[in-house]
Amino acid sequence: MIKFNLPDKKSRAFQIAKPGYPAIFSCAFITAVFALLGLVALTLICLGITLFVCFFFRDPQRAIPEGDRLLASPADGKIVFAGQVNGTHFFQGESLKISIFMSVFNVHVNRVPHDGAVKKIWYFPGKFFSANLDKASDQNEHNAVFIETPQGDNICMVQIAGLIARRIICDISGGDFVKRGDRFGMICFGSRVDLYLPPDFEPAVKLGDKVRAGESIIGYLK
Known about the structure:
Elements (H helix, E strand, L loop, with lengths): L3 E2 L15 H16 L3 H17 L7 E2 L4 E3 L4 E10 L7 E9 L6 E3 L4 E9 L11 H4 L2 E7 L5 E8 L6 E3 L6 E2 L4 E5 L3 E7 L4 E2 L6 E2 L5 E4 L2
Antiparallel strand pairs: 1-2, 3-16, 4-5, 4-15, 5-13, 6-12, 7-8, 7-11, 8-9, 9-13, 10-12, 14-16
């Protein structure tokens, strides 16, 4: 039976990710200005936008699964690809690729799938195709994080900007040691995260499944 732990026991009931504060304060300020001017319609519209921005940047507590070989999902969203690939920029030889598509209604805080050392981070300023398209993996703006587990397994997780997304945030650096479930960044307003894993990885998800960052089990390393 899988055990879960709650590393954020003291977190607030409705927590906001730090990158959201500037956008929330800006929207709230504009709402206040319209309210003081007596512009009711514009005030209500801006209030709705402010509430949506708060909702988008929510950062809820997650129960992190425990286990030496299991991988937790790095993102909230829907599995749009799960299969073997070969000859990618992110993994030498054959690998198992799992892609998670995040709509604007998903939590966008990204979490580390497994304990390990960050070997390198590779940022690529690309295009902005819809994140649910296959070509988005290679051609869109993306940020690849390469992790080596304590057992010597290599994992690559790639944050991919989408059609609307224009900002990828990554708060870790090469040389850092990270733990499963740690927050490491986010992608603003609709996006995708790809995982590149050893070819013998045993997936626990399939196409169409919905997952939660840090909580849902993606599968197991051999």
